[in-house]
Amino acid sequence: MSETTAPMPRARPRREAAIRFLDRYLLYVYTAFAILYLMLPVAVMALFSVNDPPGKSNLIWHGFSLDAWLNPFGVPQLFDVVRTSVVVALLSTIAATMLGTLIALALVRYNFRGSAATNILIFLPMATPEIVLGASLLTLFVAIGGPPFFPTNFVTILIAHIMFNISYVVVTVRARLYGFDRHLEEAAMDLGANEWTTFWKVTFPMILPGIMAAALLAFSLSIDDYVITAFTAGRTSTFPIFIWGSARIGVPVQVNVIGTAFFLIAVGFVALTTILQARARRPLPPPAAGRERPELEPGRAALAEAEA
Amino acid sequence: MRARQWLIRLTPYLLLTPGILWLLVFYAYPSVQMFISSFWSGTLETGFTVSLDNWTTYPEALERYGPQFGRSIVYGAAATTICFLIAYPLAYTIAFRGGRYKSLLLFLVIAPFFTSFLLRTQSWKIILGDDGILFGPLKDLGILGPDFRVLATPTAVVAGIAYNFLPFMTLPIYVSLEKIDGRLVEAAKDLFAGPWRPGGTIAGGVVGGVAAAGLAAAFQYDVVMLALLGIVGGVLIGTFFLSESFVRIVLPLSLPGVFAGSLLTFIPAMGDFVNAELLGNTQTRMIGNVIQSRFLDNNDYPTAAALSFMLMAGILIAVAVYARLLGTKELTSS
Asked: Which of B20, B31, B187, B230 has the smallest set of CB atoms within 10 Å of its CB?
């Protein structure tokens, strides 16, 4: 963690060399172990998706089998719960991304009374433990006591997911807006564009990567949420609720298959956008005569942004 | 012209309204409702009535679930400490030694998030199982006794929490380290900043000893033994690897990230019940487990609401103290 490379007067050279060696490589070794530790459960999940357990419990390695991969929805209900999770994630992502982007625009672009209070209201849901978010929503729904809020159902899950996603969208989009060069908008206005055109032709394409990043973040938060969903789901089941319910009697191998598939899709998506982005950043070939320069797509940077 | 100016002044509010309304109705008001619900009496069938006489719910809940509250604080603090010990060197390496692999390393830090939280915890159950892939072979070889177990102990719960929230600690520290101007460190070296001795030896020993002893107490291990190990480790690292430029420049500049990371780790860690449920036993139940079962299994809304309210109040106080000292920018921007 330091730079002890400064030569020490009258130092015992061998010991100093050993320390310098350690200083140089110890951090890398430590980092390698930390990354290994982070990835270990993911690897185990993938490994146990090709397990061949005789009973319901999938906790001990028995042998290799591709049965679960060939029949990923071969467990009752599993297809329905995955579909519910994806639908909730899609709808809540769309809603939260729109609401959150508008808030981010207001916060960065305008000075207005109440912006400090708004900041606090955005921050608090992220600082509240999930269990409190879920529990307080449940008390609201119980207090209302009638449809469509109680008994809790698909609609209440959606309400909850939009709620906890808004703050993350605001924070992600706002980070993008801070670095925005407003001269570009002024230039567009000078060239005769009105506010509406300027927004859609200049501002929006430039903040689109931030919006895409926010949407991806919201989607992954939503599809993985168990705690808040448990409080607002009632009889509706999502993929995480299904996992929790089956954890006591034994998680089916198929659950590992779907978890692994989600992981691979996400990683593939990130890899693809990174490659496309790297290609887009390469200097463009000189435009061929009579042809227009290919336009750069700002959307490509989105995913990498989400990770940063 | 007047109308137009009005419109411009109104624009931010028009942009804000839908989202803020959503948060007010489904975040802010439910918190109030939760407070009201803690004064409820009755059942789901008969309906609930609010009465101030029910304030006794609070002392009763505290008395009954005091141990779980205490456990949440201890486990949360232990997990936060472990996260810090793993995350700081990790973030440091990525920020200063990452080179062209910086984005790849960052991606690897958040990659576990692409897997379901529950499935990751389930994986730890597989890894730490009594005859599982880690301890099974060790037991067969006779390295560990047949009664050795980690699953269903506080160790497993704290390890699970620390694992699940590690990226929350790593990313804010990374962000604050990344911002540091490398020229400051160079300038310090030009001004003869060298190894930090004997300060590093003393500080390393103290920090290592205290952290190890605290963790040993939380995990119910041999305190003296681990404290000694911590002191030895801390002294070694402090003597040989801490430089003045790190202690005087890098560390202070990264403190906002450390605080933000600690808060972002400690808050969800305290409210967690998934790890305690999947990796623990009845003796490791945390306040989250109680709230969950009171709400969802017993429909005991008043007690559960009172417990959640106390949990939230405690956390709000922590956040307020934090915001007072350091501001909210650091938290929301990282």
From this structure: B187
